[in-house]
Amino acid sequence: MTILLVRPRLIGDVILTTPSIQALRRRFPEAKVLYLVEALAAPVVSHNPHVNETLVIRHRRGWRRWLEDLRLARLLRSRRIDIAIDLHGGPRSGWLTWISRAPVRVGYDVSGRRWMYSHRILRPRGYEPRHAVLNQWDLVATVVGPCEVPSPERERVEMPVLETARTAMTARLRSMGVASDATVVLMHVSAGNQFRRWPATSFREVARALVANRSERRVILLGDRTDESLAAEIAGESEGDDRSSGRILSALGWPLDQVRALMERASLFIGGDSGPMHIAATTDVPIVAIFGPTLPALWTPWRPARLPLAIVESGPLPCRPCDQRVCLPGDFRCLTTLAASRVIDATEHLLAALP
């Protein structure tokens, strides 16, 4: 039997499907499991022990995207797939699920795309306070059959990495002057859109507070290479103030597997609701999660309750949660009004509790 999982797009969303992959493997231990994913998120599942083959969607625009979809259609049909599960629910993922010609095709019951699936699952509407992992589980349960509701204690999100990634990460830290006994705090400062972007001034206040008069600490900034100006602003030193000199460093643009290895090395992670936060959830590193327009009930790090976690959010607002298309107040207040002192307090509390 060959099972296809379709989940294009974002890193965090792919990580949140990994408990479902475990359920499929338990139910069909001899099956060949294929995972179709975009190149950016491919490292999440490329070394997953429950996935036999990772099929990569190449990023294309315009007419080249149509050629890419035709290539994928031929590839999927050649695999003679028995079961295809659309874990995304978008038009493209629905079409790729349908074009696989799998006899069993599972997807969300979405108007205009019902015909693409042989089995349809009601999709949660609005902002129902139900975790994304459970929504993915609904789709897989159609194939797996009656089973226990997943638990972060049993079915953790996972992103295995090779030892070569750990070795490369260690070498990078050494070249940056980070001692083996340094207390490393990771801070993800990037965001996919303005709605999830905590101000750089707030990140800078947190970073400087963490390293001030603490020579053993290093704050390492995570993000894309396009965030260089943002990182420079956060790491910048005030004239005549050397308390943070050389202690706020950058790891922008690191390969995803090395970022995952860095999470294991770190003493704490700080970041918003984004891919790196969910990568951190695959490890035991303490997490300070900053939530703005999204709700922790849907997107909180999925992992055992015994692991240290602090959630910092703005609290109830008439416009929160939102669909992240238009900020009705116009000032992105769910994050811009979130004081840096609250993140500093949460961070120091978790650091003080470390062994």
Topology of helices and strands:
Blueprint: E1 2-6, H1 11-15, H2 18-27, E2 32-38, H3 42-45, E3 53-57, H4 63-78, E4 83-86, H5 91-99, E5 104-108, E6 119-121, H6 132-144, H7 163-175, E7 183-188, H8 200-211, E8 217-222, H9 228-235, E9 248-250, H10 256-265, E10 268-272, H11 275-281, E11 287-291, H12 296-299, E12 309-313, H13 333-336, H14 340-352
Helix pairs in contact: 2-6, 7-10, 8-9, 8-14
Description:
The chain has 14 helices and 12 strands. The chain is α/β, with parallel strands linked by helices. Strands 3-2-1-4-5-6 form a 6-stranded parallel sheet, with helices on both faces. Strands 9-8-7-10-11-12 form a 6-stranded parallel sheet, with helices on both faces.
Say what the CATH topology of the largest domain is.
Answer: Rossmann fold
How many helices? The count is 14
At CATH level 2, the architecture of the largest domain is 3-Layer(aba) Sandwich
How would you name the CATH homologous superfamily of the largest domain? Glycogen Phosphorylase B
Distance between the termini: 47 Å
What's the total number of strands? 12
Residue stretches low in confidence (pLDDT < 50, at least 5 long) are: none
Q: Provide the CATH top-level class of the largest domain.
A: Alpha Beta
Strand numbers in spatial order across the main sheet:
3-2-1-4-5-6
Helix-and-strand structural type: alpha/beta
In which range does the helix fraction lie?
A: 25-40%
The domain tally reads: 2
Overall pLDDT score = 92
Gyration radius (Cα, Å) is 21 Å
* Strand residue content: 15-25%
Order of helices and strands: EHHEHEHEHEEHHEHEHEHEHEHEHH
Shape: globular
**Main sheet attributes: strand count, strand direction, barrel closure:** 6 strands, parallel
